[in-house]
What we know:
Elements: H1 3-14, E1 18-19, H2 22-30, H3 35-44, E2 46-53, E3 58-66, E4 72-79, E5 85-92
Parallel strand pairs: 1-5
Antiparallel strand pairs: 2-3, 3-4, 4-5
Amino acid sequence: MFKSVLIEMRRHVRAGRLTLPIHAREEMINDKLTTSDIENGILRGEIIERQWDEKWQEWKYVIVGRALDGRSIEIVAKFGRRDDTLVITVYRIFLL
Length: 96
């Protein structure tokens, strides 16, 4: 699902066009994740959901992937206005 969007996001990651806002960086620190973990999640993960962002009037995508150490993570991302992939937030998935 949303294969063309994921292909384009992966292209952006490979080209170094990934923006991590402060909120995403704070979540990464809380969950002990690195930028490389986020890149890996996008490069090897899958989009599981598309959500409408009322505030910005655009689509954002929920990607499920894995950190480099194998931990499951979710990434909420969209295309930024500066021709980059903007990661809105990221968090580790804790399985019960």
